[in-house]
Specification:
The complex is a heterodimer.
Chain A: H1 3-9, H2 31-41, E1 48-53, H3 57-68, E2 72-76, H4 83-89, E3 94-98, H5 99-102, H6 106-109, E4 121-125, H7 132-141, E5 146-148, H8 154-164, H9 177-216, H10 221-237, H11 241-260, H12 265-286, E6 302-306, H13 310-322, E7 326-330, H14 333-342, E8 347-351, H15 361-370, E9 379-383, H16 388-397, E10 401-404, H17 409-424
Parallel strand pairs in A: 1-2, 1-3, 3-4, 4-5, 6-7, 6-8, 8-9, 9-10
Chain B: E1 2-6, H1 10-23, E2 27-31, H2 34-44, E3 48-52, H3 60-68, E4 78-82, H4 87-95, E5 100-103, H5 111-122
Parallel strand pairs in B: 1-2, 1-3, 3-4, 4-5
Classes of the chains: A alpha/beta, B alpha/beta.
Chain lengths: ~425, ~120
């Protein structure tokens, strides 16, 4: 859809995205906000502004928090009046939208207003991008700049967007500390949001059971209202405003009934409707519709670890979880080589302290690289003894990365970013 | 700034703590109820208490009333977090001694700003 047709379809006052329930503090991008943003993030204006459109609330939360870790601000259309208002009030540097968000909204993007500029770029998240025809249509006809798969790890996504907009991780007046903190915040927020999303259906089920209990015993109305109250506050704070608002309706009806004690049959109907709507809203927010398997998968997100230090393994698994990366741990060279033969890894982390018997660490790295699936996989060496000679051997002979054990959370985060960056760029080895 | 965050909902304590610590650079202690909060307030001497109103047992309003009657605790400023923010309700919270109100749900990215704004406004 292009040109005249699109302009005919789009009325100037049209807001294609229905406004969702808003019951939280508004995010308003005014000049005063730059000050708070600057102090909040320790960065320097101007920031890039991203309008992120996505119906998948869990994915939205992950992407938003990852983007906020860069020098960007995410304009939340769910808290505002949609793209129309965004374009009236701020200059958006980048749109990020998904195919699910685009459908009814494509008229919103094919004729950007002067505030956005015709050069406002668009990132499209699509599960179907490997289909060349659609990709070509998007990039050529709709001037989409890049298309990425929704399963892209958030950290990789934010790096890609950051490079695209030429913004780096949040700068700091005090060196890299603030940047690390903000990255950690983004990762931790994403983790909490995901954990909350996982628990949300169960919480709604508990609320339903409490309501059923109250139908039989009115003394349990208070308990049901208390559950609704707690879920109302927490759902909204985790970004599920729609669910929070509908659960709030349950709470309000229960409160009214507690106050009046009417016992009218319509009361239970109202509670039932509100709960049903809340469940639907939660299902819409959480469920990712079945995505067809595509021949060209996004980057594998597993890291191969050869290490016999149980503490280190525990730590690295916990840290990798934050990056949504799976750890495949092995205890021997043969096992590692076999894994590398059958699976692609975003990185391999090898402990030089292990006695490999008839092999050694460099030979193991070489054998991993000889496998078709891991020819350019970045490899990091790790050791508890920290011998300089070993570091030199690792970095000079094989140009691998090296780090000492124990490794801190911050250091590991930087290491993973470096490994993911190398893997993404196909460089494989540290320069 | 040392903040005592009081909420019976564990998820709110988690995200509130993360927000206040990582974004607001606050030192955060948490309590899941009013009694625990008053005990912690006595021992930890927070600069500010951020408290839910509707909690099982002693609710936020009753807790504030008790604190205002307690010589050790009466000077600690209290900010309520609540979904009930009709003008008459907010007026009541201020009337009973709260220094401000933060609406629930809150945005974890802006919560520290809101808290700081209320705290600065009091000084």
């Amino acid at each position: 859809m292009q040109g005249a047709d699109a302009q005919k379809k789009r009325a100037p006052e049209q807001t294609a995205i229905p406004r969702r329930g808003v019951n939280g503090p508004h995010l308003v991008l005014d000049p005063a906000r730059w000050d708070s943003l600057e102090s909040r993030l320790g960065g320097e204006p101007p920031m890039k502004i991203i309008l992120l459109l996505d119906d998948d609330r869990a994915l939205y939360g992950l992407m938003k928090t990852a983007l906020l870790a860069r020098s960007t601000d995410v304009f939340d259309e769910r808290r505002e009046n949609g793209p129309a208002q965004a374009r009236e009030s701020v200059t958006v540097d980048l749109f990020v939208l998904t195919e699910r968000a685009s459908g009814q909204r494509e008229t919103e993007f094919d004729n950007p207003t002067p505030q956005c500029g015709t050069r406002t770029r668009i990132v499209f998240l699509s599960a179907f991008f490997p289909e060349l025809r659609e990709s070509t249509q998007l990039t050529r006809e709709l001037d989409i700049s890049i298309v990425v798969h929704p399963r892209i790890p958030p950290s990789v996504f934010s790096t890609k967007v950051g490079e695209f907009l030429s913004v780096s991780p949040i700068p700091s007046k005090n060196g890299p500390k603030s940047s690390r903190v903000s990255s950690k915040l983004a990762i931790e927020l994403a983790r909490l949001t995901r954990a909350f999303a996982d628990k949300l259906p169960e919480k709604l089920e508990q609320l339903g059971q409490a309501i059923d209990g109250a139908k039989l015993d009115r003394a349990k109305l208070v308990e049901a209202r208390s559950l609704a109250h707690r879920l109302r506050g927490s759902a909204g704070s985790f970004g599920f405003e729609g669910v929070g608002e509908l659960v709030g309706r349950v709470e309000d009806v229960l409160s009214a009934e507690l106050a009046s004690g009417s016992g009218e049959p319509q009361f239970w109907e109202q509670v039932g409707w509100a709960l049903r709507d809340a469940r639907r809203a939660a299902a819409n927010a959480i469920d990712v519709p079945g995505e067809p398997e595509v021949p060209s998968e996004p980057p594998t997100t597993s890291v191969l670890v050869v290490n016999n230090d149980s503490d280190f393994l525990q730590l690295i698994k916990a840290l990798c979880r934050k990056f949504l990366i799976q750890v495949i741990d092995t205890q021997s060279a043969e096992e590692a080589v076999e894994k590398a033969r059958t699976e692609s890894f975003v990185a391999a982390i090898l402990n030089t302290d292990i006695d490999f018997k008839d092999s050694d660490i460099c030979l193991l790295a070489q054998r991993i690289r000889e496998s078709d699936r891991n020819a350019s996989t970045p490899i990091a060496f790790t050791s508890t003894n920290g011998l300089l000679a070993l570091k030199l051997e690792a970095t000079e002979a094989a140009r691998e990365l090296y780090f000492d054990q124990p490794i801190s959370d911050e250091h590991f985060g930087k290491l993973m970013e470096q490994l993911l960056s190398l893997q993404r760029d196909g460089k494989g080895r540290a320069e | 700034m040392k903040v005592l965050l009081v909420d019976d909902e564990e998820d709110i304590r988690k995200i509130g703590r993360l927000s206040l610590e990582a974004v607001g650079k606050c030192n955060v202690i948490t309590a899941s109820g009013a009694e625990e909060a008053m005990s912690l307030a006595r021992s930890e001497r927070p600069d500010l208490i951020l408290m839910d109103i509707m909690m099982p047992g002693i609710d936020g309003l009753a807790a504030l009333k008790s604190m205002r009657a307690d010589a050790d605790l009466r000077e600690i400023p209290v900010v309520f977090m609540t979904a009930k923010v009709q003008p008459s309700e907010v007026e009541h919270y201020l009337h009973v001694g709260s220094i401000g109100v933060i609406r629930k749900p809150f945005d974890p990215m802006t919560l520290p700003e809101e808290v700081a704004k209320i705290f600065r406004g009091r000084q």
